[in-house]
Amino acid sequence: MPKLDETTQRARREHILDAAEHCFAREGFHRTSMQDICREAGVSPGAFYLYFSSKEDLIAGICEREKTALAQALASVAEAPDFMAALSQLGQTYCLEEPREKLRLHLEINAEAMRNPAIGHNVRAIDDFVAKSFERLLSDAKAKGRINPSADEATIAQIISILGDGLYLRRALDPEFDGKACMPVILSLISSLIGPVAEGTENSDKALKTDPVQVE
Amino acid sequence: MPKLDETTQRARREHILDAAEHCFAREGFHRTSMQDICREAGVSPGAFYLYFSSKEDLIAGICEREKTALAQALASVAEAPDFMAALSQLGQTYCLEEPREKLRLHLEINAEAMRNPAIGHNVRAIDDFVAKSFERLLSDAKAKGRINPSADEATIAQIISILGDGLYLRRALDPEFDGKACMPVILSLISSLIGPVAEGTENSDKALKTDPVQVE
Amino acid sequence: MPKLDETTQRARREHILDAAEHCFAREGFHRTSMQDICREAGVSPGAFYLYFSSKEDLIAGICEREKTALAQALASVAEAPDFMAALSQLGQTYCLEEPREKLRLHLEINAEAMRNPAIGHNVRAIDDFVAKSFERLLSDAKAKGRINPSADEATIAQIISILGDGLYLRRALDPEFDGKACMPVILSLISSLIGPVAEGTENSDKALKTDPVQVE
Amino acid sequence: MPKLDETTQRARREHILDAAEHCFAREGFHRTSMQDICREAGVSPGAFYLYFSSKEDLIAGICEREKTALAQALASVAEAPDFMAALSQLGQTYCLEEPREKLRLHLEINAEAMRNPAIGHNVRAIDDFVAKSFERLLSDAKAKGRINPSADEATIAQIISILGDGLYLRRALDPEFDGKACMPVILSLISSLIGPVAEGTENSDKALKTDPVQVE
DNA sequence: AATGAATGAGTATTCATTCAT
DNA sequence: TATGAATGAATACTCATTCAT
Fold first, then answer.
1. Spatial distance between the Cα atoms of B95 and B92, rounded to a whole number of angstroms
2. Which of A147, B30, B135, D160 could lock onto A194 through a cystine, CB 3.0 to 4.6 A?
3. Between the CA of A121 and the C1' of E5, what is the distance in angstroms?
4. What is the pLDDT of residues C117-133, one digit of tens each?
5. Nearest-by-Cβ selection for C111 from D111, D162, D181
6. Backbone angles phi, psi at A33, to 5 degrees
């Protein structure tokens, strides 16, 4: 019973998680049987339970990975010189280009988060992490004089999250939905929230394809 | 000749739907057994199937009710003299005051809509209905000169839906989330989208260079 | 609560029995629901139980009718001057022309007779009745010198029944089975069992399309 | 690596089939629940479905076995020097000594064959197999000059089947039925059908004019 | 570490029958 | 007499998880 060395162990877990993600995205959490996952991962049921403690544990694992991925994405935003440009990039990647499969998975996880406290905790941790990251980014930008000093970072971060979630959900539910048409408007709204942009930046012109409204 | 008169019939259906809503919100669609629903409704399994054809049929019924309720709510907005005031009222009712139970139910239905085409159809029908309703409201307002004639109704309707969905989801996932703080900002964003035209300006450039909205 | 006059009562029973026969033949006893029968008969479930005490009771009723019908058929054979001619006619009617629906019904009843003693009793009563009838017919014929006096009526009656049952079953099971080819041979076999036929009778020539066996 | 070796696998299937045969014979297909079968076989429901795909699949399995057994029995007839003696043996075994339980099972399967195409196919395959086997046996015998060359093998094979089915059915339905009394007569009938050629005669006429078998 | 056969509680739905009207 | 809504036990099959090997 010599334990598998850590890297193999981790690799096996990742492999199973991949399989589970595909299955859940394809068929949903409840319609996916453990057999499905084991078959997809090429692993025996017995082996599965060496790496995960239960079917629900898989969702925790998926959340964990999501969190790591998001952390990287947000870190890259932090390093970007232009907040709006980085945000635009993020929106592009996460709301428009993310394969629909992922969106479905997300929805599935959200639903599961309602019943399973552990998963709920995981999901909220991710959301908090994202919100806090945005807050920090906004504070930094404010400190550097790049955004309106009167803007409330916490609220703006929330709004950004809300817009992201809304876009995500819409795309998931409606295969016909065209996010590209909305994105520029959304970006301009956020832009209007965080205040004056340094002129000559590419994003303001680029992102906005609709006529923005004059705000009182 | 007893043949249940139509109103009793309908009342019984509504009663069962109420029970199902509670169960689904509490435990989720898949974790709720027919026995659970029957117990909650005080109805025998046999009787249940006199009113609904299957477990899934319940979701269709729930969607139907939702649609009717939304239609009424949106009709009242249509009659309101002030679009933004009415929208604010709607946001208050649907995004802030709606009991969390409903939010959870919503999430559950969304997840189910991904796998079950019939339910997906139902859900999309509701979403389309809402979007179209907003479009019509905006067109009316435009016709009456109350909003910026250059605003694209379809896109704005989408954005409103997205914001609504996002708020809804956020509240569902995070019991601590305080929608009240965000709502005014969100309303002002929408207001800025439909707001009165600034005369004589090529608006796209203009809008982005004006002062951002002051968030109270 | 004045009881329905006897004839209406009986007519209603017959009507329901017809419906049940169709249903059982079409779908089998177990796959037919009471609702099916009630729908087919245009009768409410409640009403059904005024005329029959249970689903199984229907089979008893069907047997009863069968018995009556067979009694008539056999009576006509008894009156026929030529036993073989009458038998040939009987075979034609019961084994070749009987609609397949009836055959299926028969099979269904046989299967049910195995489990339900009451039905078993009914079925055996019919079979005994048929056998006894044949015995009597044979005895009569023997008394009139029309058949071989050494033939054992009981055994021959059995053999006739066995051949009839076999034909019946075969036709029921195999839609392609062509009874017409076998019938003459079967008749000639029976003919050979009961001994010399009075010459000049039409039947020997008619019924037998194969060359009949000469019985000593 | 435990992966059940083929023989154990097969043995388990046989064991379950035995249990199912008993149950079906005792209670009929429809009145037997999967629990009944599992209890009788000492197997969990889950395990059952490792060996069979459905309740109906059991009947296919039973047919399969029947076919194999029949094939062996018929093969032994083929090797016998005396066709009639072999047939007599077969009749003894299959129609007289077969335990009544088997007969009931048979009846049950026949009834089921009427509604379920897959089972119907199975049953017809067996019947065809038997008929074809008899045809071949008769042809062989004819080639060896043992039977009347004018006899039509196909028809005689049919008649044999019909007699067998009839006997079978009769025994199943009537516990009092004494097949022993009929068997010799039946055999003599068959014998008269295939009987030795009278030389120099146009046999069809001849065969039928020979002495009938003396029934003891 | 890994296997995969086995478990057995759990599920949606049906249906013969009853009974208030 | 007749209705048909209501009952609730029963059923075939699934699936997360375990455990002997």
1. 6
2. A147
3. 37
4. 888 998 999 999 999 99
5. D111
6. -95, 160
Rg (chain B; Cα; Å): 21
Q: Best interface-test mutation with A: which of B114, B186, B214 has the largest number of A CBs within 10 A?
A: B114
What is the arithmetic mean of pLDDT over C76-90? 85
Tell me how far apart the alpha carbons of residues A104 and B116 are, in angstroms, rounded to a whole number: 12
Helix B83-91 and helix B117-143: axis angle, to 10°? 150
At B98-152, the pLDDT tens digits run 998 999 999 999 999 988 888 899 899 999 999 999 999 888 888 888 788 887 8
Token pair recorded at residue D143: 């080639």
C123 to chain D nearest CA, in Å?
8
| Tens-digit pLDDT profile for residues D30-47 | 999 999 999 999 999 999
CA distance B61 to chain A (A): 19
> Least CB-CB distance to A152: which of B169, B192, B215?
B215
Q: Is the pLDDT of residue D74 over 60?
A: yes
C-alpha A81 chain-centroid distance: 22
- Distance, in Å, from the CA atom of D63 to the CA atom of C138, rounded to the nearest integer, reads 40
**Is residue B11 scored above 80 in pLDDT?**
yes
The spacing between the Cα labelled CA in C207 and the C1' in E14, in angstroms, equals: 51
Residue type, C53: S
- In chain D, the domains with their CATH numbers are 1-53 (1.10.10.60), 54-198 (1.10.357.10)
CA A45 to C1' E8, whole Å = 18
In chain D, what percentage of residues exceed pLDDT 70? Answer: 89
Q: Which residue of B has its CA nearest to A26?
A: B115
Q: Nearest Cα to D130, choosing from D83, D99, D169, D165?
A: D165
Q: Are B202 and A205 in contact (CB under 8 A)?
A: no
Nearest residue, CA→C1' of E10: B33
- Strand F positions closer than 7 A to protein CB: 1-21
| A·B CB contacts under 8 A | 201
Closest CA in chain A for residue B182 = A155
Alpha carbons B25 and B105: distance in angstroms, whole number: 4
- Give the model's pLDDT for residue C3: 61
The answer to whether the predicted template modeling score (pTM) of the entire model surpasses 0.70 is yes
Mean pLDDT, all residues of chain C: 85
